[in-house]
C-alpha cells in the first residue's frame, strides 16, 4: 500500500500514540512498590508469619538485559537502523527528482503521445503508458534498490542470499507489482474520468479494496513464491505451541514454519492473511537460534495479533490513512498544475502524462505519514507483547529473544525517535514491559523461582 497524509492528523495521531506508549511507564513508578507488599502479605498469611515475596527490581533487570548487547555489536545495529532513516529520505528525494525529470524534460508527455498512437480508447492509452512507465521507473531506481536490498544487507551480515538468488526474488516482486499496476492504474484513471472531482474518494476505495484483496491472498498465493511453508515438525515444543494455541482459541492448523533463512538470518515471526486465510508463521531462524521458551514467548505475541484482530485494525486504520492520502494527492495535483502545468503540458488529472506527479505526491504523503503509520503498527505490536506475556508467562525468555532482534533494530532510541521511526516498540520498551510484568507477578509460584534472573 502506498499513499499519503496531512500534518494536523499526523500530529494528532503522534500525540495519541505518545499517550498510549506513555501509559505503561506509570507502573514503573516507585509508589507501586509499597502497594504490592501488603497484597503479598495477605497471600502468605497462613504461612509462618514471613513475607516470602522475593525482591525484584524491574529497572535494574531491564538495564542488565540491555547491557548484554554492547560495544561493536551495539554500534553496528545502531548504525544499520539509523542509516535506514537517511535511506527513507534519500528514496523520497530520488523519487521526486525522477518525477521532476520525466515531467520537465517532456518525456512523460512523449510517452503519452506514443501510447495514444497505439491505442483506440482512453483505457488502452493508460495501459500502454503504464507498460512503459513502470519498467522505466524500476530501471532508474535499480541501483538504489540493489544497494539497499543486497549490498547493504550483506555489509551488515544480515543476508544469506547470493546475488542471483536476490535478483530472482526481485524479479518476482517486479512481475507482481507490474501486473498489479497494469490492473489498478487503468481502473484508477477510469474512476478519474467518470467521477471527476470526486475521483479521490473512489481512488481511495479502490486502493483499500486492493489492499484487502492482497492481504487475503498473500498467504496462499504470494508468500509461497518467495518461501516454503510447512507444518511445524513434531517435538515437545510443538505440543506446547498447540496447547497455547488451543488455550487462546487459535486454530492449530494456522501455525506454520517458514524457511526465512532462505533470505536472511533475522529472527522473526508474523501473522498474515485475513478472515479465513489468517496464519501464524514462525521463522526457522527463530527455531534455530531461540530456546523453546523463547519460541513460545514469540508465538504468544503472534497469537495476540490473531486473537485481537490486528489485521482488521490495520485495514481500518490504514484505510483512513489511504483516504487522507488521496485527498492530499488530489489537492496537491491541482496546486502543482497551477504552478507548473504549462511547462509539463499537463492540465488535468485525467491526463495520464500526470502519473509521475500522482506518484510523487503519493511518495511525499507516505514519507510525511511515516510517524502515523509506524505508530499504528507499533501500538498494536505493544498490545501483542502484553498479550503474549500474559498468555505465556515467560518474561525472561521474552526479554532475551528481544535482544536477538537487536541485530537489525536499534535497542535504545530516544522517545521521539521511537515514535517517528519504529514500527515495533524498541528493545528497551519491550524488555521494560516484560520486567514490569515480572515484578507484578513475582509472588506467583511459576515466577518467583526466576527472581534472580537475569
Ligand atoms: Zn508482532
Could you give the topology of this structure?
Elements: H1 7-22, H2 32-43, H3 58-66, H4 71-104, H5 107-118, H6 122-155, H7 163-195, H8 199-226, E1 229-231, H9 236-247, E2 255-258, E3 269-272, E4 279-283, H10 284-289, H11 292-307, H12 310-344, H13 355-368, H14 370-392, H15 395-404, H16 415-421, H17 427-440, H18 445-448
Parallel strand pairs: 2-4
Antiparallel strand pairs: 1-2, 3-4
Helix pairs in contact: 1-14, 3-17, 4-6, 4-13, 5-6, 6-7, 7-8, 8-12, 9-11, 11-14, 11-15, 12-13, 12-14, 14-17, 15-17
The structure holds zinc ion.
Description:
With 454 residues, this protein is mostly helical. 70% of the residues lie in helices and 4% in strands. The chain has 18 helices and four strands. The protein has helices spanning 7-22, 32-43, 58-66, 71-104, 107-118, 122-155, 163-195, 199-226, 236-247, 284-289, 292-307, 310-344, 355-368, 370-392, 395-404, 415-421, 427-440, 445-448, and strands at residues 229-231, 255-258, 269-272, 279-283. The protein has a four-stranded mixed sheet with strand order 1-2-4-3. A hairpin with a 6-residue loop joins strand 3 and strand 4 (279-283). Helix 4 packs antiparallel against helix 13, helix 9 runs parallel beside helix 11 (292-307) and helix 12 (310-344) packs antiparallel against helix 14 (370-392). The two termini are 41 Å apart. Mean pLDDT is 87; it is low at 1-49. Zinc ion is lined by residues 301, 305, 381, 384.
Provide a brief overview of the structure.
With 454 residues, the protein is mostly helical. The protein is built from 18 helices and four strands. Strands 1-2-4-3 form a four-stranded mixed sheet.
Amino acid at each position: 500500500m502506498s499513499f499519503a497524509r496531512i500534518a494536523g492528523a499526523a500530529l494528532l495521531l503522534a500525540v495519541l500514540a505518545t499517550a498510549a506508549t506513555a501509559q505503561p511507564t506509570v507502573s514503573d513508578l516507585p509508589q507501586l512498590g509499597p502497594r504490592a507488599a501488603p497484597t503479598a502479605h495477605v497471600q502468605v498469611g497462613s504461612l509462618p508469619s514471613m513475607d516470602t515475596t522475593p525482591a525484584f527490581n524491574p529497572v535494574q533487570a531491564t538495564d542488565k538485559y540491555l547491557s548484554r548487547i554492547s560495544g561493536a555489536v551495539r554500534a553496528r545495529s545502531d548504525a544499520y537502523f539509523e542509516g535506514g532513516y537517511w535511506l527513507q529520505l534519500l528514496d523520497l528525494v530520488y523519487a521526486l527528482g525522477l518525477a521532476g525529470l520525466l515531467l520537465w524534460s517532456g518525456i512523460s508527455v512523449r510517452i503519452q503521445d506514443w501510447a495514444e498512437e497505439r491505442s483506440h480508447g482512453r483505457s488502452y492509452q493508460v495501459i500502454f503508458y503504464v507498460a512503459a512507465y513502470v519498467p522505466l521507473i524500476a530501471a532508474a531506481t535499480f541501483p538504489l534498490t540493489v544497494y539497499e536490498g543486497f549490498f547493504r544487507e550483506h555489509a551488515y551480515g544480515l543476508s544469506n542470499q547470493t546475488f542471483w538468488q536476490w535478483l530472482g526474488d526481485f524479479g518476482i516482486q517486479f512481475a507482481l507489482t507490474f501486473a498489479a499496476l497494469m490492473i489498478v492504474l487503468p481502473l484508477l484513471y477510469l474512476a478519474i474520468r467518470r467521477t471527476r472531482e470526486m475521483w479521490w474518494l473512489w481512488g481511495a476505495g479502490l486502493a483499500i479494496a486492493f489492499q484487502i484483496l492482497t492481504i487475503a491472498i498473500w498467504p496462499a498465493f504470494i508468500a509461497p513464491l518467495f518461501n516454503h511453508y510447512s507444518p511445524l515438525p513434531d517435538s515437545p515444543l510443538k505440543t506446547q505451541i498447540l496447547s497455547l494455541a488451543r488455550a487462546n482459541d487459535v486454530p492449530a492448523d494456522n501455525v506454520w514454519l517458514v524457511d526465512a533463512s532462505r533470505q536472511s538470518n533475522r529472527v522473526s515471526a508474523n501473522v498474515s492473511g485475513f478472515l479465513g486465510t489468517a496464519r501464524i508463521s514462525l521463522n526457522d531462524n527463530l527455531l534455530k537460534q531461540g530456546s523453546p521458551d523463547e519460541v513460545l514467548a514469540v508465538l504468544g505475541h503472534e497469537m495476540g495479533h490473531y486473537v485481537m484482530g490486528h489485521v482488521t485494525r490495520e485495514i481500518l486504520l490504514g484505510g483512513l490513512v489511504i483516504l487522507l492520502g488521496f485527498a492530499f494527492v488530489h489537492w496537491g495535483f491541482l496546486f502543482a498544475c497551477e504552478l507548473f502545468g504549462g511547462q509539463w503540458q499537463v492540465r488535468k488529472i485525467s491526463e495520464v502524462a500526470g502519473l509521475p506527479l500522482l506518484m510523487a505526491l503519493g511518495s511525499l504523503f507516505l514519507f510525511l505519514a511515516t510517524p502515523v503509520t509506524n505508530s499504528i503498527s507499533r501500538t498494536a505490536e505493544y498490545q501483542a507483547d502484553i498479550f503474549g506475556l500474559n498468555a505465556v508467562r515467560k518474561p525472561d525468555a521474552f526479554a532475551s529473544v528481544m535482544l536477538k532482534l537487536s541485530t537489525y533494530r536499534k535497542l535504545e532510541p530516544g522517545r521521539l525517535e521511537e515514535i517517528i521511526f519504529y514500527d515495533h516498540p524498541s528493545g528497551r520498551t519491550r524488555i521494560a514491559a516484560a520486567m514490569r510484568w515480572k515484578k507484578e507477578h513475582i509472588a506467583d509460584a511459576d515466577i518467583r523461582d526466576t527472581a534472580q534472573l537475569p
